[in-house]
Design goal:
By secondary structure, this protein is an alpha+beta fold. It has ten helices and eleven strands. This is Beta-lactamase class A catalytic domain-containing protein.
């Protein structure tokens, strides 16, 4: 009886660890892509996980995709879902004008550089959070969404067992000490963005608006730089000293695909393009594109050209 109870407990834990939105359906493993990714990740000085799903065929590739990683600024995707959930419930008006106060300042980003009493429309703060990754604006929106606990409830309700906001969230201090602002797995973060892409996050209208924001990226020097400029991409990246990450939906000619790559405990902590984490993100992005679009003649511009990424 004890052994049976333990088995049930273990199964329940495993199901929770791998929980995903129900809309995904059945998937099959892309063994060739998985092998390519395993080779690319070998020898990395730190931990790294990757998850890929072809949205047309539902074939997946995963390497350490269910391990937990710092979200860094990818946490702004759940925050965006939180504020749009409040808008959908009628508790927040999408087109309202907000008033910035000095007490909101976190850093010297765009919003944090405003003068006290500056007026700004809520949609512009959301835009700055996603496109520019503005931290002060993001924390402002996190509070407006009801705080990290409310956002985490939305994530739990929608099948995301491990993606959570830690910063300024009661009961999450230990997780914040380990993972920073937020925590996720490559699988869950990719599927969260895929949920938005499919129109199933909050409502079709909310998903549409959120997806448009994800398509307006200023930070395009890593995974996005390995993709043709005429291909639509929706993305969010994140970076702290020991972790680099990015999540993308790529509207490739032969079918859309989503992928997320995340690192942690990196030995290389340089804030330079040559950082091992950044280099790996670019490498993985190119591998996935070439796998799905093998006959594409487009190649990323190399360092000898005068391009600023």
């Amino acid at each position: 009886m004890i052994r049976y109870a333990f088995t049930l407990l273990f199964v329940a834990f495993a199901l929770r660890l791998h929980a995903q939105p129900n809309a995904i359906g059945s998937t099959t493993t892309d063994k060739k892509l998985t092998a390519k990714l395993e080779t690319a990740l070998a020898g990395f000085h730190g931990q790294v996980g990757v998850y890929v799903r072809n949205l047309k065929t539902n074939r997946t590739a995963a390497v350490h995709a269910d391990s937990l990683y710092p979200t860094a600024s990818m946490v702004k995707v759940p925050i965006m879902c939180g504020i749009f959930d409040k808008i959908d419930q009628g508790e927040v008006k999408f087109d309202q004008e907000l008033v910035y106060r000095d007490s909101l300042k976190y850093d010297n980003g765009i919003v944090g550089s405003f003068r006290d009493s500056t007026k700004i429309a809520l949609p512009k703060v959301v835009h700055l959070m996603i496109s520019q990754s503005d931290n002060t604006g993001s924390l402002w929106l996190q509070a407006m969404a009801g705080g990290g606990a409310t956002i985490n409830q939305w994530l739990e309700k929608n099948g995301f067992a491990n993606t959570r906001v830690n910063s300024r969230t009661p009961g999450r201090k230990e997780f914040q000490a380990r993972y920073g602002w937020g925590v996720t797995s490559p699988r869950e973060m990719a599927e969260l963005v895929a949920m938005i892409r499919s129109g199933k996050a909050i409502s079709p209208a909310a998903s549409d608006r959120m997806y448009r924001y994800l398509g307006m990226q200023f930070w395009d020097g890593e995974a996005i730089s390995q993709l043709p400029s005429n291909v639509k991409i929706a993305a969010k990246s994140g970076a702290v000293n020991q972790a680099k990450s990015e999540v993308l939906v790529v509207h490739a000619p032969h079918g859309d695909y989503v992928f997320c790559i995340a690192t942690k405990n990196q030995e290389d902590q340089r804030w330079q393009k040559e950082n091992e984490g950044y280099a790996l993100i670019r490498k993985v992005s190119a591998i996935i594109w070439d796998h799905f679009e093998p006959k594409s003649k487009w190649k990323p511009v190399d360092g000898s050209e005068k391009f600023w990424f």
